[in-house]
Every structure is written in structure tokens, then in C-alpha cells.
Amino acid sequence: MSRLYVGSEVGQLRRVLLHRPERALTHLTPSNCHDLLFDDVLAVEAAGQEHDAFAQTLRDNQVEVLLLHDLLEETLAITEAKQWLLQTQISDFRFGPTLACELRRRLSRFDHNKLASLLLGGLAYAELDFHSNSMLAKMRGPLDFVIDPLPNHLFTRDTSCWIYSGVSLNPMMMAARQRETNHLRAIYHWHPLFADQPFHRYLGDDGHYDNTAIEGGDVLVLGQGVVLIGLSERTTPQGVENLAARLFATGQAREVLVLSLPKQRACMHLDTVMTQLNHDTFSIYPQVVRRDLETWRLTPKRDGGMSARASHHYQKALERALGLSALNIITTGGNSFEAEREQWNDANNVLTVKPGVVVSYERNHFTNEKYDKAGITVLPIPGNELGRGRGGARCMSCPIERDDIHYS
Fold this sequence. Notes:
single chain; alpha/beta; L-arginine/glycine Amidinotransferase, Chain A; Pentein; five-stranded mixed beta sheet; four-stranded mixed beta sheet; globular; Arg_deiminase; arginine metabolism; hydrolase
């Protein structure tokens, strides 16, 4: 029987959550894309075709693919879930009581497919089919958004991440992404795939998290009770400690290793500069993941507290935690210029589907060649459009079921 469990980064991947680019990308323009955390506008049809190729590659490798739009549509068919989502996403505090009431009344009449599309993809004032009595609506222009699009839902890894027998519904750092988490809250609470399944909820069931922020691109499940987390521009020390505390309290982790990354967009998450390809093999971008990178080791204390100790070398800390004599490190391919370009295009952000088999953008020729020479099988996918969103195969996937691995 299938279960909700992710035991590693490289064991056989069995079920994964993806989100096909759709309505939200049509709302990206040169004038708003930066506010929506994109560097450029994407060709919508081409991006969709590339995503279809990604999904089919996973299916061809015995991975069941779930699509976010479908899960949200099916969740909205449940009356209680629909009411909660409308109250949460179309709240009085976001829109004011007049416009919120008008919007909820109108949106509640749409079929579940269209409502899911609007919640995910956004709605402009020019697209409203009613005249609002709200002061807010009267102050907005026709191309302003009533409901902001959520194009970053493409990166399903960040919004929620499954760690052993539970999930973290992540408090997101950037305002443009914070509404995403509510969709996953509803899906994991009400959708039949999840509603009756036992699993832990580490973070995300409460409301405001203050300075606690964490995103799934910074979380690597290494197996055997070890978790690796990056301190990036999107994940705070408070986020790491709160997640670690819940992992320890539920007995799901025995150790959390933390790497402090530069707070830069080029390495916004740990998985943009480091991923695991096989039991003992990691891909890194050496200009960021250096030997002197500040590393911390968090472990539970008997009194329920937590110990935080500095480690001198991330590689040695990983070897000790995993019981390995040495790690096999593959660096980004090409000369300095080529490596920087390929890292920007997510050469290190690959998705391992089983030990030694990874999905990678075909455009990253130099790095893919290094993987091949190291005995790693590369499943290439097109990414000329998807890659412009600054996320690779790992970013675009949220594993929901994956096998354990055992280190010798």
C-alpha cells in the first residue's frame, strides 16, 4: 500500500507533486515579473510543453505524477474545504469587507476547475464581471490584480516538503509566495489522498510565523534520520530551529546539519548549488559550496531542548553523519564562465529518481557530461523556457513517496 513517506533524496521516487505552468504565466509581463519573482516572461505554450516532457520522463521511470491543479480542483469539490479556502484566500483583511464579500459570492458560483484556475493563476480588475461598491476596487486600474497570480507554484518543492513520515507546510519568506501554502493546507487536510492518512505536520498549521521562514529547496532528506538544510535568502535560522525542534519531538530526525549560504538570488536555495545524486555522490557549485562554509550540527537533548554546535567542514560533517568514509563530489562542468552559466541555469538542481539516475536540463552540456563520466545516468529534459524561471527539476517537484536508503 502506498504511504506518505519520503525517506531519502535518492531512493526510488514513487509519487511526486508537480504544477504545470498555465494561467499564472499568461499574467507575467515585463513590468510585473520582478514583483512576482521572475527575471523574465516565459513563452507559455513552450513552457507547458517542456513541463509535459518532464512529467512524462518521470512516468516513464515508474513515478506516479500528481498535478496541483487537479488536486486543488478536487479539494474545492468538498464544501468545507471550498469555504475555508475562500475565507482564507479572499479575506476581509486582504480586500476589505466589501470587496471580499462580493468576490467570495461571485467566485463561489464558478465550477471547481475555473475557481482553481483563478486561485492559482490570478484575476485582473478588467476581468471582473460585476461592478464593485468597494473603495479599493474604485482606486485600482483595470490591469491591477484583484487576485495576484502565483507563477512560483511551478516550484512545488518549496511550498511544502515531505520529510520522513511528515510534511512541513512552509512559511514562505516572500510575500508573492505566501498564499501558495494555503492551497497545500487545504489539499493535505481535505483531499481524499491525504485526509485519512496518518502523517506528522511539522510547520504550517498555524497562522503568522513572524521571523520563521523556510522553503523546501533548502531541505535535503539524506536518510537514516539525517536532514540537511541551507540557510539561504529564503530560510531563516528561526525557520531551521523550529523545523528541527518538530523533527526531534516527533522522532523523525536524529540530526540536522545546516549550511550557511550567501544571501544571493543566484543561490537562493541549497538545491541550486548542491544536490544528492547517489548514496555517496553529491553535485556542488564550488564557488558557493566551499570547504570553509559555516556549518552547524543540531541534535536533540534529553530535556527536550536542542544542541547547536559549529562544524569545521561541511564535507566531514556529512561523512560523519552518514557513516561514510568519503564523499564523491562532482562540481559544475566547464571553465569558470561555463560553470557560472550552467549553475545559473540549474545544472546542480537535478532530481534523482533512483540511485545514480537524475533528471536534468539538456542545455547544461558540460555538467551533464561530468555526471555521465562519473557513472550517473542523466535523463535530459528541455528547459529553454522553464529554466528562465530559475528552477530545475528538483525545484519543480515535491516528492510525496520515496524509498529509504541505507548507508553501508
